[in-house]
Design goal:
By secondary structure, the protein is mainly alpha-helical. The chain has one domain. The chain is built from 13 helices and six strands. The chain has helices spanning about 5-35, 55-70, 80-100, 105-120, 145-160, 165-185, 190-210, 220-235, 245-250, 255-270, 285-290, 295-320, 320-355, and strands at about 35, 50, 130, 135-140, 235-240, 240-245. A two-stranded antiparallel sheet has the order 1-2. The chain has a two-stranded antiparallel ribbon with strand order 3-4. β3 and β4 form a beta hairpin. α1 (about 5-35) packs across α2, α1 packs across α7 (about 190-210) and α7 runs antiparallel to α8 (about 220-235). The chain is globular, with a radius of gyration of 20 Å. The mean pLDDT is about 80.
Amino acid sequence: MREQDLFYASVALVSFLAVFMLVPLCRKAALKLGALDQPDQERKVHRRAVPYLGGLSFFLAWLLLLIVFAFAAPHRLLPEFYPLAAGGFLIVLLGVYDDICDLTSKIKLPLELLLCASLYFWGFKSEVLSNPFGGTVYIGGFALVVTALWIAGIMNAVNFADGLDGLAAGLTCICSAVLFFVSFRSGSVFSCTIMAFLFGITLAFLCYNFHPASIFMGDAGALFLGFLLGASTVIERQKGTAVIALSVPVMVMAVPLLDTVLSFMRRLRRARSGRFFTPDREHLHHRLLALGLSQKQVVLSLYAVALGAGILAVLFDRVTSGYKMIVLAAVGAAAFCAVALLRLFESRQQWKREKKQ
């Protein structure tokens, strides 16, 4: 095994062990503080109170990894790690406050956008957008908007997915594994390190969070996962030039991003009555549960879809520009068919209920 391969394996292993040991401590702290996610009859599907400070272990593991780098391998400490630590700390604070005090989306979303935009001034910036079919497009100062919207979008996509036991952690685990493979081929040390870290912490957390979950990651954990995912994919280096390359990450994270887009469209329809920020129970996992699937069936089904999207993303990254359109068309067709089938099953379910009445 090469030194670089051993390094990535070590990052994943240290991250896994850190979260595996920290989660029980976070669970005890949540129980002592009374930080419990109480069940309700609206959006939440769990039937008992569950502690939800598990996401703190993610940030603590990140700090531990940086400390290990500082003492054991200081040459591995990349400059980009420091703003991620600072920004991640603020994101976790925001998430913990939201978990405890139930911060409204009218306040939380602008704060998220502000924190994500700040990364632009910390060096996560590029005025060049990668063209998925070859070449680049100059976007100038608009990169600030792209950076903020992309990272905030990924954060909320992961947060929306955190509605069933093991769903957000599992999807992030699959996404990080696929993105690690793609980044490894391109030689991106920064992205590979982040993806190895994410893979390790989410795999460890699934040991406690898969159905029936003994702890939730909460908004603090979901937002932090999305923050790292979004920030680590916003910039790619091609022949010494920093470019924003989002095509592959979009395909890899197709499931949570599709759910976010559909949620945004529903909110736009509700905006006429002043309910844009009102949450609902129409996310993909809620709708699949309504069709009669169990929690495990829904989660494993969405895992399979995410894995399929990841395979298509790898193909997209490997094929020449002439075949990229075919892969993109396949992804678009698959997404369209999935939504159409879901609506068809829902219509049949509704028809059966009306017939019984």
